[in-house]
Design the sequence.
């Protein structure tokens, strides 16, 4: 889990499949009610989460957030040709129906370029992480960024086709991913990797060129990821910049 940032407009919610327990946890997100945007979504992924359930036909409001603080994306997407970009993908939860339906809460959507981003390089990375998760459990945080720390960039805004709320379009998308080795005494070691993308069209679906350390993404975003790890394990894991080191950990 990322460390929480104190901000009066941030709502941190966790969704469960049934009773509130670690075994039933689906995902946790940090929702900025002032921008109608989930800034990050954290979840674990293993083979039990994935399957072949059909894709739901529509989206719905999150029951944990007032509808007035959500964007109406239930039937239609955004204007300006942006797609409803999942932060936790459908394919990472299409083995458990309740969990899958929760990925279709409108709060799990952000405006995303479809062709040459969501449908290409971003999708390729998500598919690779799903492949890894068929054989071992991994932990993922997917997030958006509007400005790198210390920088001031222009932020575009759009609207939903069925709503008038003004919604910021992320300038960056990222993922940070963690593997751990456990023993009876706790977590012995870990490996992590980050991926950082400008939100633009890409001519390639090869994501490995965009691998960076988790430390680097923390510097750019001001976030603190994987705070529940022992300090020494966290320090080593978050310094890694090699995709292959993570892949074969």
Sequence:
């Amino acid at each position: 889990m990322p460390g929480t940032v104190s901000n009066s407009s941030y709502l941190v919610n966790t969704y469960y499949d049934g009773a509130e327990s670690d075994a039933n946890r689906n995902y946790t997100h940090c929702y900025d009610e002032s921008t109608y945007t989930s800034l990050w979504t954290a979840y674990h992924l293993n083979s039990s989460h994935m399957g072949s359930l059909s894709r739901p036909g529509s989206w719905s409001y999150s029951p944990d957030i007032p509808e007035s603080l959500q964007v109406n994306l239930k039937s239609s997407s955004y204007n300006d040709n942006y797609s409803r970009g999942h932060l936790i993908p459908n394919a990472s939860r299409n083995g458990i129906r309740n969990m899958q339906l929760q990925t279709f809460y409108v709060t799990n959507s952000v405006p995303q370029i479809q062709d040459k981003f969501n449908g290409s390089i971003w999708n390729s990375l998500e598919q690779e992480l799903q492949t890894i998760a068929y054989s071992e459990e991994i932990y993922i945080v997917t997030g958006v960024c509007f400005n790198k720390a210390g920088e001031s960039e222009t932020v575009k805004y759009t609207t939903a086709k069925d709503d008038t709320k003004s919604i910021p379009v992320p300038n960056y998308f990222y993922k940070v991913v963690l593997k751990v080795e456990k023993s009876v005494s706790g977590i012995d070691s870990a490996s992590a990797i980050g991926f950082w993308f400008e939100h633009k069209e890409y001519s390639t679906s090869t994501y490995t060129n965009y691998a960076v350390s988790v430390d680097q993404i923390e510097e750019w975003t001001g976030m603190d990821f994987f705070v529940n790890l022992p300090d020494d394990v966290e320090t080593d894991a978050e310094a890694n910049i090699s995709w292959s080191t993570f892949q074969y950990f």
About this structure: The first helix runs from residue 97 to 102.
